[in-house]
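Lecture 7 notes: from sequence to structure.
We start with the chain below.
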Amino acid sequence: QVQVVESGGGLVQPGGSLRLSCAASGSILSIYAVAWYRQAPGKQRELVATTNSGGSLNYADSVKGRFTISRDNAKNTVYLQMNSLKPEDTAVYYCNADLIGSDGTWYDSWGQGTQVTVSS
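Predicted structure tokens for the same chain:
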């Protein structure tokens, strides 16, 4: 079964850091693109950052300079490094990945989400 799983969320104090992981598993050839979203209670889901196989990186204005996407192709994993965290970053973070299966099938896969809470 092709899927992605997020991990790395937790409780952190303002100014702290967390690194989220989005790991793809199953019979896949590669991760083509990943988008990180977040959804805070009572708010709409927000696009946070994106990357693709061409190396393009894009960030929401609210996280520019604080969040960084990186990828480890050998591990089929994409990371979201989050620094200088603020209480308003508190949300459930979701990974959405376009995956290329080993048979050439494309998959659009969502993870289950990981909770990030920034609070003193």
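Points to note: The mean pLDDT is 95. The chain has no helices and eleven strands.
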